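Subject: sequence -> structure tokens, single chain

Hey, anyone have a minute? Need the predicted structure for the following. Not urgent.
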Amino acid sequence: MATTTLPSSLLLRPLKTPQSKSKTLTPIRAQSETRPRNPRKAPKRRSSYGTSRRSTIKKSFSQEQVAFSGPVSEDPVVGIIGGGMAGLVCGMFLERRGVRSTVFDTRRQCSPTRAKSLGLGVVGHLVAWLVVVMSIQSWVETQGIHGLGGRMGTRVIEPEHLIFDHAAQYFTVSDPRFSELVDKWMEKGLVSQWQGAVGELEAGGQFVPFPSTPPRYIGVNGMRPLADSILSETSLVKVVRPCWISTLEPYNGMWHLSGNRKPQGQFDAIVVAHNGKCANHLLASSGLPLIARQMKRLELSSIWALLAAFENPLPVPCSLEGAFVKGVEALSWMGNNSRKFSSGQHSGPECWTFFSTASLGKQNKVPQENIPNVTAEKVRMKMLEGVEIALGLSKGSLQKPSYTKLQLWGAALPTNSPGIPCIFDSQGRAGICGDWLLGSSLEAAAISGMAMADHIADYFQSGGSREDEFNIGLDNEFQPLQGYDIGQFLGTVPKSQTENLEAYQLSS
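Reply:
Had a minute. Here:
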């Protein structure tokens, strides 16, 4: 099997190291004997730092350092914030070490509301359920079905059954433990090698395919089922969704997490398995200044994803199925999902995923939760014009797609990295994992989750007493990454760009 690689470059000026003050928190057993409280009620407590400091902490990183002094629980539990590849694999490998975990993810689930609570009676209840079912069907037809997995995102549009990988397009394999996971997916029929032509496409239609090795892997029915497969192999991993964790509160020897306007449990350690502005906001007042500083150093690009279905096949050269586009201002990738997923002749509309360049993403950065129609139409037109340029078609000659869906990945890919598999603050019993720590690929995400799980399990096994021995990545400098705008893949960037990943594999 093969390796992964890593994306584009942007130098980052390191922030000044904050001067951290230690705040010792007593273990939970010490206070629980004298101050019992109802576990069903949200604890009414003052902030560990005092409310007067909250606004100041959010504006700077000179916050007090949490320092847990008591031993970890006999049956510890880890809270994992983020249900992408890194978070799910972290939960899976914690279970292999006998550690329970809860994964919090923001992805929505289609679930009807409880009409009974509105006092509608039996008939009203049935009518309400019918309305909800119809609204869900309408939502699915227009928005698609998607769930856990982060960048393992697949969108299915019914009733036409249009399938799009709208995040990770494929992955490569080099790490033995990740290879073991991929082999299981292949045994289950979830993944296969992508045998189609993938390469570089110059503006004007000149296509140069990559060699068939290293192998490229895809989800047979899209990437999202891989997330479901990871969960199916676990019994000690609990998933809570949709849940947006909004506060991390160190209290009484444990981390107390809150989200969706209510407490979400207490944990011996926490892992932040996502990034971007939401993660920065979450960490800004957490009492974890060293971790917050490292997260703040991360630079992320924005990428637009355009999903488009065409009634007739596009005039592509050499049976192209996937291409990194060069020399086109608006376009960095185009992938034919229909040919990728079909082993034989394909019938029905041809489904394509187009990714913008990071430059177009930066020029048209808007809140991804509320994209203005004017911006969406402008980007859509620019990207479709980019397809014409890439294929060497005359302006306006590209057939009109029968379906389009535009999505902005506001925190798409890292442009710099510390080159380590995970970060852990042993005093605060908190860590970070994610593909950006090693590069930007599914394999990098999986390796990061594995490393984080093993590190936390080792820390628990030590009793949590040897603090300095278990600190990792808190002072590492970030270095620029190179690669394509949509990520890094083995065999597509210079050898030097894969050294961080390979160095970790050798050391582990």
